[in-house]
Write a structure and sequence with these properties.
elongated; 8 strands; 8-stranded mixed sheet; 2 domains; Rossmann fold; 45% helix
Length: 287
Amino acid sequence: MGKRIIITEEEKKQIKEMHSLNEDWIYDLLSYLGKKGKQAAKKVWSKITGSDKEDISKEDLEKMSPEERAAFEKEMEDDKKSEENKKSEVKKSKEGKKETQKTGSWVVEGRYCYRIPSGYKGGGEAHLLICGLDTSPTNLSKSSKKYTANIPNINKVIFVMTDYKNTVSTAKSWISKNLNASVSSVAGFSKGGEDAWPLVGSLQYKLIGLIDPTTTNSYSYEKVFNKFGENTFLVCDPTNWGGYKGIQKNLQEYCDNKEQSRGRITCEKSGHHQQLGIFYEKYSTRL
């Protein structure tokens, strides 16, 4: 086996610099792979000494010959590369499955529910729907097909839904980072309308939708309709807000003036959630 030697301070310095180790370089070398590192050390120790020693101490490591240290370090590096390759393969597998899942079907991720058209290559456009109190992404994933089944342009853009507690700016950043798309149109449904009203008058989007939305006096017909551009449309049924007289009154004012709205206001008697279908069947060609 050859003569065992004590590792000199100069050797410690060289190994430390080589591996960017801290002062407890031996412990670091032994533990930087966690259990895998300990297994590698035991394997090398057994191979070199013929001993099945369970616990390898700092003193044992210090007494390694240069050849033994080289074998130990090589084993550690090989083990590290093996682990990294395994993690890389697992990551690729997950990404492949995730991509398959993403295209052509509805997917829920955190506070988002989205659908990517089949064959999407990235860099496209997305439509963002801010939802209401009882339409969380999880609930919407169950009813999304029902309310979006007849959307003419459903396969033209990425369709993303999120909850009303989110913000347009946060959602846009998430969509850009995770779906590689830019938001080209926004709609607010029910309480989600609170995020859509401030966008009225913006020329940044192809379409701004207000779907049976929550309103306040700040967004009354008198104060806001003159800001409606060619890209802004309101769909509502004031009777759906019977328990909220302020909202009902504001929406009724819009409906009372729908004839002068040049098609920007649609008032149809229908259930609250059914207003989603009315809006997208009527205006999705603008997505």
